[in-house]
C-alpha cells in the first residue's frame, strides 16, 4: 500500500494576506493541488482546507493542507490533521517562508530549531517534536530598516513577482522529491547552485 504524507503550507487566512510573503507556503500547496487536479474542501474538525490526491499514478497519497488559523497558531490544525489521517511526524512536511534565506532559494531539512519562525515553533510544540520535514522558501530580509514583521505581511515586489511562479514550482518539485526519493536526494537537487 502506498504511504500517506501530510504536506502543510503555513500562512494567514483571508484575501488580505493571500499574496503576502508570509503566505508563500500556501501558494506552494495551491501548486501541489493543481498538479494533483484536486480541489480543496473544508476539514472543519481540524480547521483547515484540504486537497487529497497523488502526484503520479501509484504514488504516495498526499494530504495537502492550508490551516484556517493565523500563522502563529498553525500547530493546532497540523496536529489535528496528523491525528485524523493517522500520519506520524516523519511523514509531515511543512512548507513555510524563511527570512534568513535569500529570495528565490529553497532549503530543506528535518528537525532543528524554529529560527524565530512562530508558525514552525507552534507546529513543533503541537506535534510534540521538531522532527518533521521543512521546505523553507527564501523570502530574504527587508531592505533598510523595515521591520521584518511588516516585511512578511507585504505582497511580493514587482521584480520578485516575475520569478515567484518558478520559486513556487521549485518548492513543489522539492516536496515531490522528498516524498518519492527521500530528503537527501531532494536536498542535493534543491541545494545545488543554480545554473
TrEMBL record:
GO terms for biological process: protein quality control for misfolded or incompletely synthesized proteins; rescue of stalled ribosome. It is an enzyme of class 3 (hydrolase). The active site is at residue 22. Its EC number is 3.1.1.29. TRNA binds at residues 17, 70, 72, 118. The record marks 12 as: Discriminates between blocked and unblocked aminoacyl-tRNA. Signal peptide: none annotated. GO terms for cellular component: cytoplasm. It catalyses: an N-acyl-L-alpha-aminoacyl-tRNA + H2O = an N-acyl-L-amino acid + a tRNA + H(+). It holds the Pfam family Pept_tRNA_hydro. It is found in: Cytoplasm. It comes from the Bacteria. One of its GO terms (molecular function) is tRNA binding. Keywords: Cytoplasm, Hydrolase, RNA-binding, tRNA-binding. The keyword Hydrolase applies. The record marks 97 as: Stabilizes the basic form of H active site to accept a proton. Hydrolyzes ribosome-free peptidyl-tRNAs (with 1 or more amino acids incorporated), which drop off the ribosome during protein synthesis, or as a result of ribosome stalling. Catalyzes the release of premature peptidyl moieties from peptidyl-tRNA molecules trapped in stalled 50S ribosomal subunits, and thus maintains levels of free tRNAs and 50S ribosomes. NCBIfam families: pth. Monomer. Belongs to the PTH family. This is Peptidyl-tRNA hydrolase. It comes from Microbacterium sediminis. The gene is pth.
Amino acid at each position: 500500500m502506498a504511504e500517506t504524507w501530510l504536506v502543510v503550507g503555513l500562512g494567514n487566512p483571508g484575501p488580505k494576506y493571500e499574496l503576502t510573503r508570509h503566505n508563500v507556503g500556501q501558494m506552494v500547496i495551491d501548486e501541489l493541488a493543481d498538479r494533483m487536479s484536486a480541489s480543496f474542501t473544508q476539514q472543519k474538525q481540524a480547521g483547515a482546507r484540504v486537497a487529497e490526491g497523488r502526484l503520479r499514478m501509484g504514488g504516495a497519497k498526499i494530504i495537502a493542507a492550508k490551516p484556517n488559523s493565523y500563522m502563529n497558531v498553525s500547530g493546532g490544525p497540523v496536529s489535528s490533521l496528523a491525528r485524523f489521517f493517522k500520519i506520524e511526524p516523519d511523514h509531515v512536511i511543512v512548507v513555510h517562508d524563511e527570512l534568513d534565506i535569500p529570495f528565490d532559494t529553497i532549503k530543506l531539512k528535518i528537525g532543528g530549531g524554529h529560527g524565530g519562525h512562530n508558525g514552525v515553533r507552534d507546529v513543533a510544540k503541537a506535534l510534540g517534536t521538531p522532527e518533521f520535514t521543512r521546505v523553507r522558501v527564501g523570502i530574504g530580509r527587508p531592505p533598510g530598516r523595515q521591520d521584518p514583521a511588516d516585511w512578511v505581511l507585504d505582497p511580493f515586489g514587482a521584480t520578485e513577482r516575475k520569478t515567484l511562479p518558478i520559486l513556487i514550482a521549485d518548492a513543489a518539485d522539492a516536496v515531490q522529491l522528498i516524498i518519492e526519493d527521500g530528503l537527501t536526494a531532494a536536498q542535493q537537487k534543491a541545494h545545488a547552485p543554480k545554473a
